[in-house]
Amino acid sequence: MNRSEGQTRDAIETQAAAYLAASLGDLDPAARQAIADWIECDPRHAVAYAQAEVAWDAGERLKGQDFSTQASLRPPSIQLARGVTRRRLVAGASVAAAAAVFGAPVFVWLARATRYSTAIGEARDVALADGSRVHLNTDSQVEVALSAARRQLSLVRGEAYFDVAHDAKRPFDVAVPGGVVRAIGTAFNIRLRGAIVELTVTHGIVGVRTAEGVMRRIPAGESAVIQPRTVAVGKMDESAIAKRIAWRERMILLNGETVGEAVAEFNRYRAAPILIGDSRIAGLRIGGRFRTDESSDFLQALEQTLPVHSAEEDSGSVLLMYADQTT
Length: 327
What we know:
Helix content: 25-40%
CATH topology of the largest domain: Jelly Rolls
Strand content: 25-35%
Distance between the termini: 71 Å
Shape: elongated
CATH architecture of the largest domain: Sandwich
CATH class of the largest domain: Mainly Beta
Structural class: alpha+beta
Number of helices: 8
Largest sheet: 7 strands, mixed
């Protein structure tokens, strides 16, 4: 369905109440999918549906009505797919409602979404039904909803590399905080870094649309920092791109990064962090190639090349101290 621009707020709220009421009664055999599509096609629909559910739960406004006989509340030909309960629909609507408050584009995954995630230190490759592949880095999560008309994903946390199968009729959309990244047949890396989104395009061209409507095309060999109001684009050479996606080979490449930056990178893969115990250490610089699961090699390199001493604590954390503090 397309976004219904002409609908008034009252009309949307009335329709949401009708759909909620219908979902409480004895529905015809195919009803759930059409209500899910209505919620999904416009964030305003999701907000209204969530609000209707809140009102129903709080005040029991719909209690006592015979929904099976109220034709005015029964959407014609609306049938929910088997297994999609009213609660699950509302859960999806609530997600969209929260996102709408913050102005971010969002897809309502509902029961059609499949969630893939990794633990700290884990990496995972996921083959999708359309031929695309999603490679998840440490402590990451992606939600996937594929249909005959669209391919919708959401990077919830962490980092992922998307290798997209070409399908001109079904754009491949990845929702991220503050925007949406769209591709048809290409490959790109997305990393969530707090309030910003870091995009690196390795093949083809992707489009970016921010929550504020800013649109940019990012070709291979360029990167972008995405925020709700801006998209900052920059060119990258092959070595810089290789560093960005080295995690796919379980590697961390350092080329003059500060110890503070390097420690932050290794801590992504550790359950017990490396801690810097002296501010003089953080600004020192180091290079090298290390495995993500062998931070001991990194610690050894620090001690061999810099005035740094490391001490492992009972918790598994490692404390870095300036060398002149030890005897």
